[in-house]
Design a protein that fits this description.
mainly alpha; 7 helices; disordered C terminus
């Protein structure tokens, strides 16, 4: 609720972004402090392009695949363009199933 209240307060008191310290990623991270499982700060939060890798390292994303493969399979642009305005757009962009990695391979690091 704290996060939603913060978002709603922006209507009356707008805040401006600083591309390094106050952006979409850092704002979301700051508002997760209320969660018991709040993830620790990392430089990867400041350089938001590294957030998926950071979440993977923290085991907050599916670790059954090496990170580069998970990232490749998560790229939905082509499926989204093909689905266009379809009523079942959400289902269509998720059609590629992730096949589980054989036992013993799930802890493979992504250097």
């Amino acid at each position: 609720m704290a996060y939603m209240n913060k978002i709603n307060s922006l209507k009356n008191r707008p805040e401006f972004y600083n591309s390094l310290t106050t952006n979409c990623t850092t704002s979301i991270w700051m508002n997760t402090h209320v969660n018991p499982d709040h993830i620790p700060f990392s430089w990867k939060i400041l350089l938001s392009g590294y957030v998926p890798e950071y979440l993977y390292e923290r085991r907050l994303l599916d670790n059954r695949l090496p990170f580069p493969e998970l990232q490749r399979r998560s790229h939905v642009n082509a499926r989204a363009q093909a689905a266009d305005a379809a009523v079942d757009f959400s289902r269509r962009i998720r059609e590629e199933e992730i096949t589980p990695v054989p036992a013993g391979k799930s802890d493979k690091s992504s250097d």
